[in-house]
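Q: Given only this backbone (334 positions), what sequence would you predict?
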C-alpha cells in the first residue's frame, strides 16, 4: 500500500488514535440498546401514544440519517472528491458541514481515501477492496489506517476542506446537540432526540456508507464493463428490490456504484431506467433555482456510448481516441 495513505508495519497507529477510530466505528451501535432500554423503561401507554411515539422516533431517525448521508453524497463525494457541480460557498460549506456530522473522520482524509480508491480500485493498493475480505472492505480497513496521515495536495490546498477537517469534532458535537435540542423543544425529549436523531442517525448513515465500499463491490450487477469489481446494488426479486431501494434511498443514490466508477465526474449516478438517485433529483432542482451550475450530467445516450467504449480492448480504445483527435483537428482547420 501507498505509505502516503496507509499505516506501515513500522509506524503503527498510537493506542489513543486506535481508540478514537474504534469509537467512531462502534459507538453508534450503542444507540440500538439505548433505544430499546428507553422503550422498556418508559413505554408509551395506549395505541394513540404508541403510534405517535413510533412515528416521531422514525422521523428523528430518518432525518438524522438522511441529512448526514446528504452531506456525504453531495458534499464529500460529488463535490469534494469529484467536483461534478459548482455552487456558492455557503451551500458548499453547508453540505460539507452535514458530512462532518457523520463521524467518518477528517474530511481531507475521507476525500484522499476515496481518491486513492479510484486510482487503485480493487488492486493491491486499494484501501477497501473485498479482494482483501468483505469485512475488511466494510470497516476493517479503517482500523489499519493512520489517524493523522498524509493526504493528496489537491485537497490539502483547499481552504474550506481544511477548515472543516480541522473543526471536525465541532460539527460532530453539533450534530448530536441539534437533535437533542429539537427533541427537548418538541416534547419528544432531549435524551430521545439524542438517541434517535443523533446516535441512530450516525449508525445508519455510517453503515450505509460502509456498504457502498463493500457491498457495492460484491453484490449486484455491472452495467458498465469497468476494470474493477464495482457494482450497481440492484437485486432481483420482491425483497431484493425492496432492499436495493432502501439502500439507494438512504445513501442518496450512491449504490449506483458501477455507474460512478464508469464516469466518476458524473453528477448523476443513476443513468438507466429504474435506478433511484435522490442526489441527482435534488441537483436538478438546485440547478433550476440557479444554486448550482456547470453540472456534469450523463444522459442515457452518453451512458450507452460509454458502455460501448468500455467493451473495447485497450488497443481499440486507443485507436478510437486517435480517430476522435484527428477528426477534431480536421474540423479545426476547416
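A: Predicted residues:
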Amino acid at each position: 500500500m501507498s505509505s502516503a495513505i496507509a499505516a506501515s508495519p513500522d509506524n503503527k497507529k498510537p493506542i489513543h488514535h486506535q481508540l478514537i477510530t474504534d469509537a467512531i466505528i462502534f459507538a453508534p451501535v450503542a444507540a440500538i440498546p439505548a433505544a430499546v432500554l428507553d422503550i422498556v423503561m418508559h413505554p408509551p401507554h395506549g395505541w394513540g401514544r404508541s403510534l405517535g411515539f413510533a412515528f416521531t422516533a422514525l422521523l428523528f431517525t430518518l432525518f438524522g440519517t438522511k441529512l448526514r448521508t446528504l452531506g456525504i453524497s453531495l458534499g464529500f463525494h460529488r463535490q469534494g472528491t469529484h467536483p461534478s457541480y459548482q455552487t456558492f460557498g455557503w451551500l458548499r460549506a453547508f453540505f460539507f458541514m452535514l458530512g462532518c456530522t457523520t463521524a467518518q473522520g477528517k474530511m481531507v482524509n475521507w476525500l484522499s481515501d476515496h481518491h486513492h480508491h479510484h486510482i487503485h480500485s480493487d488492486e493491491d493498493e486499494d484501501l477497501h477492496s473485498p479482494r482483501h475480505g468483505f469485512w475488511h472492505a466494510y470497516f476493517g480497513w479503517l482500523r489499519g489506517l493512520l489517524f493523522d496521515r498524509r493526504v493528496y495536495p489537491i485537497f490539502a490546498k483547499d481552504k474550506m476542506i481544511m477548515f472543516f477537517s480541522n473543526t471536525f469534532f465541532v460539527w460532530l458535537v453539533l450534530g448530536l446537540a441539534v437533535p437533542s435540542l429539537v427533541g427537548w423543544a418538541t416534547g419528544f425529549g432531549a435524551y430521545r432526540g439524542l438517541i434517535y436523531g443523533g446516535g441512530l442517525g450516525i449508525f445508519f448513515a455510517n453503515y450505509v456508507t460502509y456498504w457502498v465500499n463493500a457491498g457495492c463491490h460484491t453484490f449486484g450487477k455491472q452495467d458498465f464493463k469497468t476494470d474493477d469489481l464495482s457494482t450497481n446494488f440492484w437485486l432481483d426479486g420482491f425483497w431484493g428490490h425492496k432492499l436495493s431501494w432502501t439502500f439507494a434511498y438512504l445513501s442518496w443514490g450512491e449504490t449506483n456504484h458501477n455507474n460512478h466508477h464508469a464516469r466518476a465526474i458524473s453528477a448523476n449516478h443513476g443513468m438507466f431506467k429504474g435506478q433511484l438517485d435522490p442526489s441527482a433529483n435534488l441537483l436538478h432542482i438546485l440547478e433550476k433555482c440557479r444554486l448550482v451550475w456547470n453540472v456534469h450530467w450523463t444522459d442515457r445516450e452518453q451512458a450507452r456510448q460509454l458502455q460501448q467504449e468500455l467493451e473495447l480492448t485497450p488497443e481499440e480504445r486507443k485507436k478510437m481516441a486517435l480517430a476522435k483527435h484527428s477528426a477534431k483537428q480536421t474540423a479545426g482547420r476547416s
